[in-house]
Amino acid sequence: IFVKAYKHKPDFFSTGEATLYLFNSGAQQLFEVKAFHEEYRSWFIGQTVQQDGRLLFVTPMDPLFLILYYLIKADKEPGKFQPLDQVVLDSEYPSCPLLLKCADVKQYIHHVTEEKEIGSHKFHKYSQEKTLKWLKKKVNQTVKALKSNNISVGERVHAATFISGKQITDTKEDYVWYAHGLISEYIPEDLSKELLKYLGLPELKSPAAEPPLKKRKLSDVPVEAEEDYTKFNSSNLKTKKANSKMSAAQKALAKVDKSGMKAISTFFSSKPKASK
Question: In which region does residue 46 sit, left (phi positive, over 0), alpha (psi from -120 to 50) or beta (all else)?
Fold first, then answer.
């Protein structure tokens, strides 16, 4: 049985984003459905080609995460206790009451609510204090699972794009940070921030933008050159450039005393005509 329900993304209250979940037969277990999708991928089924080439991953999920949305929504009326079947209702998603049929929901609902029992009926009200305590247990369970599966989180926590040669040791705080991030995908942003404080972790802040460079104030006073730039005139540059291209033999010849010697060009010039 597939059911659509709200998913607790950081922006889920503002966007009302919906996603797809799966119940097993009898609605005893809730599963989250995630899709791996690439372009130009299809499935061959028998003699047909299925255009939708997505690969779906189904993982068990605690239904309390989805029930939290309806409990927080009903808590807008402070001090009011209500039966669960009147809280977990949604006209857009009529299948959401199936969440209450999941195994152990009624047994563990006290982790996120305050309860009152009148006769044979139980009434509930959202409790943030209990919810934070329950979420902390979820974080600790996630940390334990990460460590037991030898999953390194240090690089991810430090936002390293590539694995560098310098090894980063996974600290206990790194695991808590990473586990908090995973749990935060299923709870509202405000609750995620409260959980951050409850875990004793500092709130992440985006780096401050650098101030713009100040423009130099133009002055009417003429600026005098601090260096004589005439030494870089074209004739000097040509001589320097020519000297830089001379070979070792040419440089040695240039040092020879040429006084009294004729230039080689005189041997090839035309002879003067004899006078009659």
Answer: left
- Which of 44-53, 100-109, 148-157 has the weakest average pLDDT? 148-157
Reported confidence tier of residue 34, pLDDT bands at 50, 70, 90: confident
d(CA 75, CA 126): 6
Q: Phi/psi class of residue 200: alpha, beta or left (left: φ > 0; alpha: ψ in -120 to 50)?
A: left
The tokens describing 131, both together, are 């919810």
pTM attached to this predicted model: 0.64
150 vs 168, which has greater pLDDT?
150
Beta-bridged to residue 210, according to DSSP, are none
For residue 11, what pLDDT is reported?
Answer: 39
Judge whether 22 and 33 are in contact, CB under 8 Å.
Answer: yes
What would the 3-class secondary structure string for the chain be? CEEEEECCCCCHHHHCCEEEEEECCCCCCEEEEEEECCCCCCEEECCEEECCCCEEEEEECCCHHHHHHHHHHHCCCCCCCECHHHHCCCCCCCCHHHHHHCCCHHHHHHHCEEEEEECCEEEEEECHHHHHHHHHHHHHHHHHHHHHCCCCCHHHHCCCCCCCCCCCCCCHHHHHHHHHHHHHCCCCHHHHHHHHHHCCCCCCCCCCCCCCCCCCCCCCCCCCCCCCHHHHCHHHHHHHHHHHCCCHHHHHHHCCCCCCCCCHHHHCCCCCCCCC
Place of tokens 């060009």: 265
